[in-house]
Design a protein that fits this description.
Length: 541
C-alpha cells in the first residue's frame, strides 16, 4: 500500500475524524478532515459496517468524496475496513490506498480485517485504561497537589488550573473566584496555558489581573475554541472553572472536570476561610526555600522594598464568633484602603499586615491603626492589640519582622495598649527569664518589704516610697534627699528605720537590687490599698 489512514468516530462531533495518516501530505491534515456516516467510501464502510474493496478507478465510484488537500488523485485502488466493537458499535475505519490497480487481493483484505479487529480491541482497552487513569487521577487530585499550593490562595488557583488543564488536554484553563457583595475577589484568576502556546499568549497570561484581562486572553486563542464552564462550591458558588480547546469536550471530559471542581471547592474554601488558614509568619516558616517564600509574598501582592510588618490579635476573651473577627478585619481593611502597597492577610483570630515604607504614608498609617484599635474597643467592644516589627526588605527578613511584631502585640495586650513597637520592648525580651531566675530572692524581698508597707499603713509614713527613691538614685543620700525635697538628716533617719524593719543594711547593693524590684512591684500594685488586712498582729491569707 502507498498509504494507510485511520478515521475514528467522535461521538461529540458525530463525525469520523482522521486521526492517523502514514504519508506526508495526508499526515499534515490529521485531526482536520472529518466525514459524516455514509460520506465517501470511508463513511459508507462505517455506516454499513462492511469492508469495501475498490480495485481500480476509485474516483469513478459514486460514493467517492474528494478532498484536494489529501492528494487522492494519485490513488487507483483502496480497501476500507470498519473498526467495529464486539457489541456492534462503530469505532472507526481502517483504510489502505495504492497507486496501482488490483493490488488488494482476498488475503490482503483478510489481513486488513484482522487488523481492524485488533484495532477495535485495542481502542476499547485504551479507552478503558484512559478512563480508569483519569478517574484515579481525579480521585487522588488533592493528594497530588504540591505542598506549596496551599501557601496562598493565589498559588492554589494557579496550581489547580494547571492540573485541570492537563487532565483534559485543554489549551487554556482558568479559575475565577466569585465577587462577594460588590467587593473585589480575594485573588486574581488562576491561569494555565498549554506548554506549546506562543510567546504572545504566555505574556498575556502572566498579565491577567482582572476579568477584562481574562476576556482579552481568551479572544487571543482564536475563534475555533470549544469552551466548557462549570461552577464550584456546595452551598453557594465560590467561582467558576473555564476550559478551552480546539475540539469539543467529551462526556468523559465533562465528568472529570466536574469531579475536579468539587475537590477544587474544598481546597479553595479551606484557604478562603480565615479560621482555617495558617498565619502569614507560619506560611513563610513552612516555605521550603527562599524562592517559595518570595513567590508566596508575591502572590499576596507584596513587592520587594522596605516593608513594615504589623501583627494584630483579637484578645481571646473578645473572640466570640467569626462575625466578631470579620468585623475587625473589615475595619482594618477599610483603614488600609487609603494607603498604597498594603497586604492584609487574615487568619483568625489574627491579622498580618505588610505595608511599604513611605515616610509620610507610614506616619498616617500608624495613626489610622491606633484609631481603628481604639474605635473597635469603644464601638464594638472588641479589644485588639497591634504590634509593629522592625522594617525589612527581603522575604527571610520579613519572617523575623512578623515574629517581632507578634511579640510586640503580646506586650500590647499585656500593657493594655492599642499599639506597641518591637523596638520599644526589645530590651525586655529576657525579663521573664530574669524574673524566674530571681524568683526565690524576689519572694523573700517581697516578704521583707511587707514590713515597710505595714508600717506605712499604721503610721501614715512613706518609707516604701523613700526606699524606692533611694534605690532609684543609686543609694545617693544627696540625690535622694533632693528628689524627695527633704533634709539629708531626715532621709538618714528614714533609712535607719527601714534597716530596723527589714533587718538589712541599705548599703548592701546586691541584696537591694532585688528589693528595688520588689518595691517597684508593690508600688505599681497600688500600695497601700493593696496591702492585705492586718488582723491580731498578723497578716491573713
Amino acid at each position: 500500500a502507498a498509504g494507510s489512514f485511520v478515521y475514528l468516530w467522535d461521538a461529540q462531533l458525530e463525525r469520523l475524524v482522521l486521526r492517523v495518516a502514514t504519508t506526508g501530505s495526508q499526515a499534515a491534515h490529521v485531526d482536520e478532515i472529518t466525514l459524516r456516516l455514509g460520506e465517501g467510501i470511508t463513511g459508507w464502510s462505517a455506516l454499513m459496517r462492511q469492508t469495501v474493496v475498490i480495485h481500480d478507478n476509485l474516483h469513478d465510484d459514486p460514493r467517492f468524496a474528494s478532498f484536494a488537500m489529501l492528494d487522492e488523485e494519485r490513488f487507483r485502488s483502496m480497501a476500507a475496513v470498519p473498526i467495529v466493537a464486539p457489541g456492534g458499535d462503530v469505532l472507526g475505519v481502517f483504510s489502505l490506498w495504492s497507486t496501482e490497480p488490483s493490488v488488494f487481493q482476498p488475503h490482503d483484505v483478510d489481513l486488513a480485517t484482522e487488523v481492524g479487529g485488533l484495532l477495535a480491541s485495542g481502542l476499547l482497552q485504551a479507552r478503558t485504561v484512559e478512563d480508569l487513569r483519569r478517574q484515579s487521577a481525579a480521585a487522588r487530585f488533592l493528594l497530588t497537589v504540591p505542598p506549596d499550593a496551599t501557601t496562598s490562595l493565589q498559588r492554589c488557583l494557579d496550581v489547580l488550573a494547571g492540573a485541570i488543564r492537563e487532565q483534559v488536554d485543554a489549551a487554556l484553563c482558568t479559575i475565577e473566584l466569585a465577587d462577594r457583595a460588590g467587593t473585589e475577589a480575594p485573588a486574581r484568576p488562576g491561569v494555565a496555558l498549554h506548554s506549546g502556546a506562543d510567546a504572545g499568549l504566555r505574556v498575556a497570561a502572566r498579565s491577567v489581573r482582572t476579568r477584562a484581562d481574562l476576556t482579552d486572553l481568551t479572544q487571543r486563542l482564536g475563534p475555533r475554541q470549544d469552551k466548557f464552564t462549570t461552577t464550584f462550591g456546595q452551598l453557594f458558588p465560590l467561582g467558576a472553572i473555564n476550559c478551552y480547546r480546539d475540539r469539543p469536550f467529551s462526556d468523559s471530559d465533562v465528568s472529570i472536570i466536574e469531579a475536579l471542581a468539587a475537590q477544587t471547592a474544598a481546597l479553595v474554601a479551606s484557604l478562603s476561610n480565615p479560621s482555617l488558614t495558617t498565619p502569614l509568619a507560619g506560611r513563610l516558616a513552612n516555605a521550603a526555600n527562599r524562592r517559595d517564600a518570595e513567590r508566596l509574598l508575591h502572590d499576596l501582592g507584596w513587592r520587594r522594598g522596605l516593608t513594615h510588618a504589623v501583627f494584630v490579635r483579637i484578645r481571646s476573651a473578645h473572640y466570640g464568633s467569626p462575625g466578631t473577627f470579620d468585623r475587625a478585619v473589615g475595619a482594618l481593611e477599610e483603614a488600609c484602603r487609603s494607603f498604597d502597597d498594603v497586604v492584609v492577610v487574615p487568619s483568625a483570630p489574627t491579622v498580618s499586615i505588610l505595608i511599604r515604607h513611605q515616610p509620610d504614608q507610614w506616619k498616617k498609617f500608624e495613626h489610622a491603626l491606633r484609631t481603628v484599635c481604639r474605635s473597635l474597643r469603644t464601638d464594638a467592644g472588641i479589644v485588639v492589640a497591634a504590634g509593629i516589627g522592625t522594617p525589612a526588605t527581603e522575604a527571610p527578613q520579613l519572617l523575623t519582622a512578623l515574629e517581632d511584631a507578634e511579640t510586640a502585640a503580646q506586650w500590647a495586650d499585656l500593657l493594655d495598649e492599642p499599639v506597641v513597637h518591637h523596638q520599644d520592648i526589645a530590651h525586655l525580651r529576657m525579663l521573664p527569664k530574669v524574673a524566674v531566675d530571681a524568683g526565690n530572692g524576689l519572694r523573700e524581698a517581697l516578704n521583707r518589704f511587707t514590713e515597710l508597707v505595714r508600717y506605712d499603713v499604721r503610721h501614715g509614713t512613706a518609707l516604701s516610697q523613700t526606699l524606692d527613691a533611694y534605690l532609684a538614685n543609686g543609694c545617693s543620700i544627696t540625690d535622694t534627699a533632693a528628689a524627695l525635697y527633704i533634709h539629708r538628716n531626715t532621709l538618714r533617719q528614714r533609712l535607719g528605720r527601714i534597716e530596723e524593719l527589714t533587718g538589712r543594711a541599705t548599703e548592701d547593693a546586691d541584696d537591694w537590687t532585688v528589693v528595688a524590684l520588689a518595691a517597684r512591684l508593690s508600688l505599681a500594685d497600688g500600695v497601700p490599698a493593696a496591702v492585705p488586712p492586718y488582723v491580731d498582729g498578723d497578716l491573713t491569707d
